[in-house]
Write a structure and sequence with these properties.
52% helix
């Protein structure tokens, strides 16, 4: 499987300590995937709810979290997953994981 330039940059960045700003860029880069259809012309930001602002059903949400886990090399437990209501919650959670600042 050929990795994209974006994926290569993420892997390079995740080998080092990441700042919240970098984590945010990576998360929004993943959300930019056309497979994630947002409702209408809604602008997505850190305060956006996965349930309200994003057109995520439970399967979309799980697939998105699996992609996040893979990109950042982290694991998100089922309990942690239930607490992540907004994109900002997710960014903060990733930043709190080992080796991230």
């Amino acid at each position: 499987m050929k990795i994209t330039q974006f994926e290569h940059r993420i892997r390079k960045l995740t080998s080092n300590r990441l700042t919240r700003k970098t984590i945010k860029k990576i998360v929004f880069g993943i959300l930019d995937n056309p497979n994630y259809n947002f409702r209408g012309d809604i602008s997505i930001d850190e305060n956006s709810s996965f349930e309200v602002h994003c057109n995520f059903d439970s399967l979309d949400y799980l697939e998105f979290l699996m992609e996040i886990e893979e990109k950042f090399g982290i694991s998100i437990t089922e309990e942690e997953e239930k607490k992540l209501k907004t994109i900002g919650d997710l960014i903060s959670h990733i930043a709190s994981k080992k080796n991230f600042i």
